[in-house]
Amino acid sequence: GESVGLHLPTLSVQEGDNSIINCAYSNSASDYFIWYKQESGKGPQFIIDIRSNMDKRQGQRVTVLLNKTVKHLSLQIAATQPGDSAVYFCAERRGNNRLAFGKGNQVVVIP
Amino acid sequence: ETGVTQSPTHLIKTRGQQVTLRCSSQSGHNTVSWYQQALGQGPQFIFQYYREEENGRGNFPPRFSGLQFPNYSSELNVNALELDDSALYLCASSPGTRQETQYFGPGTRLLVL
Fold first, then answer.
1. Looking at the partner chain, which of A46, A96, A101 has a beta carbon nearest the beta carbon of B43?
2. CATH value at residue A76
3. Cβ B97–A97 below 8 Å, yes or no?
């Protein structure tokens, strides 16, 4: 089968702390991964992507790590802010250019 | 640069009816993908259109159909609506079909009674 999943349903984090969201994928042939953020009532918003020939990629306050050996993806958010409260999805691109999403992980930032 | 827009924002239908949802892609994007997102779930791929042709389809029945127009805008049509079709329908556009990031619109919330 194929699946993209997240380990933790909800992550509560103190404002200013770092957040780490994990994701496991099962398709070893996947070569492109994306993290999306979805706020209530809105569509998914692109955060950062990474190709399979990379192990790490950094953006503004976010870092994505890819471990192909164990088929694991993580998103690190530095200095978490109240505006980071949302559901975070990892997605992998499949052969016919579709995105396969996991169920999502709710991040709640505590002021 | 205009982002992805969708209409309507909300819609209520009854079982057996038909619905058409609309999407305008981001400027310069020729590829549109449609997703269904049930409450509490991740989006599920329905199909993709590239230059007015269907370019890949997910595990959805034929009563889900689509169109793409010369200006790259797109429609999603669902016939014979069922209660389980209640969901957020998302449209995403990208500048091509090969490993290009997809940018999502705000979605259309469909409720089937």
1. A101
2. 2.60.40.10
3. yes
